[in-house]
């Protein structure tokens, strides 16, 4: 008979188990770098519009300067939203307590952000636009322009994600398989 302690996280299998155990720290680092790179693109676009006075179509972030055709593709934006959703979902098992709450807040916001990008992608692929618009349009985009909306979405996902990561690394309460906690890293590097 197997006895489960109530404070343990549910068991997962295979890759997800490793991502939330011994690989959690490097997996979080890679995921965080991807998030920062995307966030930098949105910040660069905002600087191009608000500080450099570029028109919105000309403000394409850093990648868009070199590959203007690429950033106009809805599948690129949808792909990033999907990577974010999968990353937040897959790495959630190692979070516990308040850190888990913050991580799940980021995940919940990303679920909606992903849905909005899916809506944009379907419109672009079908070449049929909702709400009588001349281009793919998301629901909240009816109220908030796309550039500002995506700055908001990325901030709304990023901030609780960072709080969750900070709490996870400093507390890591209740989940001993993960090596992210500062005390776990310090203990592992201490001389025997």
Explain what the structure shows.
The chain is mainly α. It has one domain. 63% of the residues lie in helices and 0% in strands. It has 8 helices and no strands. Helix 2 packs antiparallel against helix 7. The N terminus is likely disordered.
For the CA atoms, what is the radius of gyration?
A: 20 Å
Count of all domains: 1
Oligomer: single chain
Coarse structural class: mainly alpha
Distance between the termini: 36 Å
Question: What is the overall shape?
Answer: elongated
* Helical run tally: 8
User: Can you give the helix content as a percent range?
Assistant: 55-70%
TL;DR of this structure?
Helices cover 63% and strands 0% of the residues.
Provide the fold topology.
Blueprint: H1 14-19, H2 24-50, H3 63-66, H4 68-71, H5 74-90, H6 97-126, H7 146-170, H8 182-189
Helix pairs in contact: 2-7, 5-6, 6-7
